[in-house]
Each structure stands twice: as structure tokens, then as C-alpha cells.
Design brief:
Layout (H helix, E strand, L loop, with lengths): L5 E4 L7 H17 L3 E4 L6 H9 L2 E4 L10 E4 L6 H9 L3 E4 L3 H15 L3 E5 L5 H7 L6 E4 L2 H6 L8 E5 L5 H14 L13 H14 L4 E5 L5 H12 L3 E5 L15 E6 L5 H12 L5 E4 L21
Parallel strand pairs: 1-11, 1-12, 2-3, 2-4, 4-5, 6-7, 6-8, 9-10, 9-11
Helix pairs in contact: 4-5, 8-9
């Protein structure tokens, strides 16, 4: 084992309110209705969470068309396009919407801007489920902008009628640069009064920046398809710290830790805290006994469960 002496845990880390709501929605649906409960796409982007729910009777499908007519279908935290809801209704599916309220806010903004005649510029990553859902709100009026270069070259029919919205799990710094470019090119551009990037994404990236000053290597617990987890890796790398995305402790390569005295650990917003505990045990088993937390940001955001799975009053 390398000379690691200390493991420092970022705070805040792990589950956000939207993920907690989505996972509990599937758990409640299983408790109330019994298996199978169908879930469109991964409820959240974490392989451990998905695997646990599968063992309990959840069936994950790529499309609402794969759920048997009349069955119960949970829509994932990332949101869906209106066309998905229409097809689900045509198949008489009983849908439970676990879309994160902060994602639903972006959908509402896109609909409102498009309805008012604006060209909507959606800052986000092509192919991400959240982006696909937002694009579906007004596809004829929305253009995807992924990079600063895209922002420099995007054209709009009327520069006086343009607005922007963003994916909720982007890099705070990179998005600020893209938005600044759009504002320079389109001075009249409209945008949300409050950033679309969610509080959890912002807080976790800020915690990584603070941690970067005192660690030699950073490990980020999260799945490869987790946008917010990958942004944490990039945030650390931008601060000059070597960083690695790991699914769990089995993915740690001890060669990464060669010469490192202090290792940082954080987790994406869809990674359960039990995975953090497992990584801590991995380090303890290798002689690292100084494990401490950094940061003091407290998160008290809470989202009510969908009405379909709220338990009856006692």
C-alpha cells in the first residue's frame, strides 16, 4: 500500500433531494403495488441503486413501449418529453412521475419561452436523458448548445427574441463561460432568474474546489453515465488535482495512490452513502486510520413524493 496517511471526505456529497425522491418513489411503488414495477430508463444514474431496485422487483425498460399495457410505469428523475407521456397514455399505463422538480422547472421555462416566440438555446450535453426530455418540450424552437464554440457560432432567426435554459448537472464554471458568450453575442437574451444548475451540483463542485487545496488525489464515487459525477472529476482536474471516477472500492487502482499522502473522497448526487462507507473501509484495511470530513455546507432541501405513492395518513 502507498504512503497514504489521511482520507478526507468532501461535504456535501452523495444523494440530493431529487435522487432521494426518485429512489423512494420506486420503493414506495413496490411496497404499495408489489412487483413488477416498470421504470423508464434508469431511475437515477447509478448502477448500485438500479441493481438494488431490480432485486426488489423493479423492471427497467428503455422505452414506455416495453411496459405491458395497463402496467405501472415510473418516469425517471431526468424527466421525459411530452411525447413519452402521450404514448404512455395510449398504452393505458399508470404513470408515476419521479422527475426532479428542478428538472421540471427547466421544462417549464423552455415551454414558456417557446410559447412566447423565443428561440430557446439549451445548454447541455447531447444524448443525456435530461436534455432529450427538455428538447422534447419544444423541438421546433430549441437549439442545443454544448460548448463555448457552439455559443460563438449558433445562429437564431431574431436576436431580439432569444432565451437560454441549461441542463441541471453541468460544470458551473464551463456553463458560466457559455452563458457569458451567449450574452455577449445576444445582449437581449432572456434567461432564468435563478440558475438552472441545481443546488446539489453547485455545492458538490464547490466542495471539490475547496478539497483540491489539501489533497494529492481525489476519488469520485459515481457511475460512468452520471453527468454530475463526471463533472466532479473535471472540477478537480481543472484545479490541478489528479482525479478518478470509481463505481465502488473494487475499481480503485493502488497505482493512483503512489506517493499520495492525502486522498480526497466525494460522491455524485446519485451515489448512495453506503458506497462511501465501503471505500472508507477499503482504506482502513490498508492502514489508513485518519479519516475526516471537510466542509460544513448543510443541505436541507426536501421534495414531496408524487401523490400516487404517498402513504395514507395514519
Amino acid at each position: 500500500m502507498p504512503v497514504v496517511r489521511r482520507l478526507v471526505l468532501a461535504s456535501p456529497r452523495g444523494y440530493c433531494a431529487g435522487v432521494e425522491r426518485a429512489v423512494e418513489t420506486v420503493e414506495r411503488a413496490l411496497a404499495l403495488h408489489g412487483p413488477p414495477v416498470y421504470v423508464r430508463k434508469q431511475i437515477v444514474h447509478n448502477a448500485h441503486v438500479v441493481g438494488d431496485l431490480e432485486r426488489r422487483g423493479a423492471v427497467f425498460v428503455d422505452s414506455e413501449d416495453e411496459a405491458p399495457p395497463g402496467s405501472l410505469l415510473v418516469l425517471s428523475a431526468h424527466g421525459v418529453a411530452p411525447a413519452v407521456r402521450r404514448r404512455a397514455a395510449e398504452r393505458r399505463l399508470r404513470t408515476v412521475d419521479a422527475t426532479c422538480p428542478l428538472v421540471a422547472k427547466v421544462h417549464a421555462e423552455a415551454r414558456r419561452y417557446a410559447g412566447e416566440g423565443y428561440r430557446v438555446l439549451l445548454v447541455g450535453h447531447a444524448g443525456h436523458e435530461e436534455v432529450e426530455g427538455t428538447l422534447g418540450e419544444a423541438p421546433e424552437a430549441t437549439t442545443l448548445v454544448e460548448t463555448v464554440a457552439d455559443a460563438e457560432h449558433v445562429s437564431v432567426p431574431d436576436p431580439s427574441r432569444v432565451a437560454y435554459v441549461t441542463q441541471t448537472t453541468l460544470s458551473v464554471d464551463e456553463t458560466a463561460e457559455i452563458v457569458a458568450t451567449l450574452r455577449r453575442r445576444f445582449p437581449a437574451i432572456a434567461g432564468p432568474s435563478k440558475d438552472d444548475i441545481c443546488y446539489a451540483t453547485t455545492n458538490r463542485q464547490r466542495a471539490v474546489k475547496q478539497l483540491a487545496a489539501e489533497v494529492d488525489v481525489l476519488l469520485v464515487i459515481g457511475s460512468e453515465n452520471s453527468s454530475n459525477s463526471k463533472r466532479l472529476v473535471e472540477t478537480a482536474q481543472a484545479a490541478g488535482v489528479e482525479a478518478h471516477l470509481i463505481e465502488d472500492e473494487t475499481a480503485i487502482d493502488e497505482r493512483w495512490l503512489a506517493g499520495a499522502e492525502t486522498v480526497g473522497l466525494t460522491s455524485g448526487a446519485s451515489a448512495p452513502e453506503r458506497l462511501v462507507a465501503r471505500v472508507c473501509e477499503w482504506f482502513r484495511a490498508r492502514g489508513v486510520h485518519e479519516i475526516c470530513a471537510a466542509g460544513t455546507v448543510a443541505e436541507d432541501v426536501f421534495f414531496r413524493l408524487p401523490v400516487e405513492v404517498r402513504l395514507p395518513a395514519a
